[in-house]
Write a structure and sequence with these properties.
It contains three helices and four strands. The chain is α+β, with helices and mostly antiparallel strands. The protein has a four-stranded antiparallel β-sheet with strand order 2-3-1-4. Strand 2 and strand 3 form a beta hairpin.
Length: 89
């Protein structure tokens, strides 16, 4: 199998190879880089995420977990972030 071309693809492959049940990609809705405050919001509202994989320019994070994010916390996160679900893809 060829090596994934981009850093994003490499990190996504890492998360998939780790056999996480849930994989999400987080980006800020304003397109800005993630800040310390963002990190705190993510860790507070997604406590079951095992791996946070930063992609290059700090504008994307790939999250891997074997547990879903609870709906109230997901709602909080969706207000601030674009969240793409890569689980099982």
């Amino acid at each position: 199998m060829p090596t994934p071309a981009t850093e994003f693809e490499q990190k996504l492959k890492f998360a998939r190879d780790a056999r996480f049940t849930h994989i999400w990609v987080f980006t800020r809705k304003d397109g800005a880089v993630f800040t310390k405050e963002d990190t705190e919001i993510l860790h507070t509202n997604a406590p079951n995420v095992v791996d946070w994989l930063k992609v290059g320019d700090m504008k994307e994070f790939i999250a891997g977990s074997n547990f879903p994010i609870d709906p109230p916390q997901m709602a909080v996160l969706q207000k601030r972030y674009k969240i793409e679900d890569y689980s099982g893809k």
